[in-house]
Amino acid sequence: MDDVPMTLPLATLGPGLAGALVFAYLLGAIPFGLVMAKAIKGIDIRQIGSGNIGATNAMRALGKPLGLVAFLLDWGKGYLAVFLFAGLTGLEDMLLAKTLCGALAVIGHCFPIYLGFKGGKGVATASGSIIAIDPWVFLAGGVIWLAALFTSRYVSVASILMGITFPIVAFMHWGTQGWSFIAGCAALGILILVR
């Protein structure tokens, strides 16, 4: 486990952090499910099923194969936002910076500027962000998600339980050293619960 400073004055990161966070938000705000549905079938998935722009509703509108593509694109937004930020700034070992960048991608998905701040639930994008930061936390949440989906048959129930799992496992793995990641996981879990 990398050494992670307990405090990190954001001002010391300067415009690199600001630019990366803006990029992460704008990347997260791209509504891939909506774009795919309009481009492929000429439909607005906001008028179908749950009205959500995310992968689950895209699957309802486009079928499983294209819905899976929408999921992977939404997942990739979170993953890419974390790794592109680290690559651009050279702050690859800074857990707080990665967490902020991943969180901004999720916020972008949930509140996209391109759609009047009305977006999806952020589950796929949050999962992509978390696996980029800590694959073990993602793996634990993914196992819970699969088990809950298998037993309940509801994606929403599985997503809620996964959202609860993330901060618990993050604390078990990082302890107080990973306070920023734990807080980020908790915030993402709350966002999944309320959306």
Termini Cα gap: 33 Å
The largest sheet, given as strand count, sense and whether it forms a barrel, is: none
Q: How many strands?
A: 0
Helix content: over 70%
Shape: globular
Low-confidence stretches are 4-11
Rounded average pLDDT: 84
Structural class: mainly alpha
- Content of β-strand: under 5%
Name the helix and strand elements from N-terminus to C-terminus, one letter apiece: HHHHHHHHH
Number of H- or I-type helical stretches: 9
- Any idea how many domains? 1
Q: Round the Cα radius of gyration to an integer and report it.
A: 16 Å
Overview of this protein structure:
The protein has 195 residues and is mainly alpha-helical. The chain has one domain. It is built from nine helices and no strands. Helix 3 runs antiparallel to helix 4. It is globular. About 4% of the residues have low confidence.
Summed up:
By secondary structure, the chain is an all-alpha fold. The protein has helices at 14-28, 32-41, 55-62, 64-89, 95-110, 123-133, 135-152, 155-174, 179-194.
Key terms for this structure?
single chain; 195 residues; mainly alpha; 9 helices; globular
Topology:
Blueprint: H1 14-28, H2 32-41, H3 55-62, H4 64-89, H5 95-110, H6 123-133, H7 135-152, H8 155-174, H9 179-194
Helix pairs in contact: 1-4, 1-5, 2-3, 3-4, 4-5, 4-6, 5-6, 5-9, 6-7, 6-9, 7-8, 8-9
